Amino acid sequence: MPSTPAPTSRPKLKFPTWLTVVLSVFAVLFVLGAVFGKPAPTPAPAPVAAPVAPPPVTTPATTSVTPAPVTYTVDKITDAANVELAGSDGSHRTVHILGLEVATGNNCYANETAVWADNKLSGAAVKITTDTTDGVALVLSDGTDYATAALSAGYARLAGNAISDSLRNAANTAQQAATGLWAAPCKGVITAPTPVPTPTPTPQRETPAPPPAQRTSEQAAPPPVEDAPEPQQPSGVYYKNCAAAKAAHVTPLYRGQPGYRPGLDRDGDGIACER
After folding, report:
1. 82 exposed, middle or buried (CB, 10 Å; 0-12, 13-18, 19+)?
2. Which of 67, 164, 203, 241 is most buried, by CB atoms within 10 Å?
3. CA angle centred on 231, ends 230 and 235, rounded to 5°
4. Rounded to an integer, what is the distance from CA 65 to the centroid of its chain?
5. Which pLDDT value is given to residue 208?
6. 103 domain-assigned
7. What's the structural domain count of the chain?
8. What CATH number does residue 173 fall under?
9. End of a domain among 178, 209, 226?
10. Tens digits of residue pLDDT in 210-223
């Protein structure tokens, strides 16, 4: 009887080494998770309250007080271009007025300039509009610029350092019109005494001698007849007094000029209304 062949054995399935390692790791982790269980959740930290900011400190508003502007009054007049001012704050300032050059002392047109400046500035309230180291500009209470008024009326010459167009125009106008110190006898020269013109002698008319009278031998010869001085002819210009002559800006009057008369010449030197 024939023998039956034994069944062929199947080869065993072998896993790769790396797969075995991975499965082993997972198995260990699974066991550990089963043993120790799920860890308790960590409690969330309690919310921290935000710090409360301190209330803002309110500083009381400070009210700024603007000091009142200082006003000035002319306290003393040295000459038409230099004065002393008394301030409302108790201050005193001696200032030079910008742009002016005036006659002083006994120089030509000094007396007329001093009288005019005294009438304009004595005790007057003024405002300083320009204040520099060289001087100031003054405005009178009626808004008139003092330097402009002095130049336009011919009571001052324009100083060499003046750069104001308004002052330059005022001085040019007075010079072209021969006003004030630009008229004779000063003709713009205020740094020398008033020139005294040489008086022109009045020609005397010769009075014809009378014809000789017929006389007898007993009649004495008449005394010689002296020529009588000719009376001064009126010029047609008459000033009641020196104040009227000064108001007409014609002083001083010299002998031979229209308006001169001995009644205005107190010292008889041929110059009337000289002061």
Report:
1. middle
2. 164
3. 120
4. 26
5. 64
6. yes
7. 2
8. 2.40.50.90
9. 178
10. 666 555 544 545 55
Using alpha carbons, select from 112, 26, 17, 127 the residue that is nearest to residue 69: 127
Q: Is residue 141 part of a domain?
A: yes
Question: Residue 16 has which token pair?
Answer: 């790769």
Residue 210 resides in a domain: no
Residue with tokens 């038409």: 80
Find where tokens 């009210």 sit. Answer: 63
Does residue 83 sit in the same domain as residue 148?
yes
Q: Which residues contact 214 (CB under 8 A, 6 or more apart)?
A: none
What's the full length of the chain, in residues? 275
Same domain, 166 and 239: no
Kind plus residue range of the DSSP H or E element containing 125: strand 125-131
In a domain, 135, yes or no: yes
Give pLDDT tens digits along the chain (275 positions).
Answer: 455 555 555 555 566 777 777 788 778 777 777 766 555 555 555 555 555 666 666 665 666 667 778 889 999 999 999 999 999 899 999 999 999 999 999 999 999 999 999 999 999 999 999 999 889 999 999 999 999 999 999 999 998 776 688 999 999 999 999 999 999 999 999 999 988 766 666 666 666 666 665 555 445 455 544 444 434 444 578 888 888 888 888 888 888 888 888 888 888 888 888 87
Print the domain residue range for 146. Answer: 72-178
CA distances, 42 to each of 39, 61, 92, 131, 227 (Å)? 9, 55, 88, 83, 152
Could you write out the DSSP letters of every residue in 162-194? ---HHHHHHHHHHHHTT-GGGSTTTTT--SSBP
- Report residue 217 as tokens: 């031998």
What was the pLDDT predicted at 226?
Answer: 45
Q: Give CA separation, 147 vs 101, 132, 138, 190, 200, in Å.
A: 10, 15, 7, 17, 39
Q: What's the CA dihedral at 215, 216, 217, 220 to 10 degrees?
A: -40
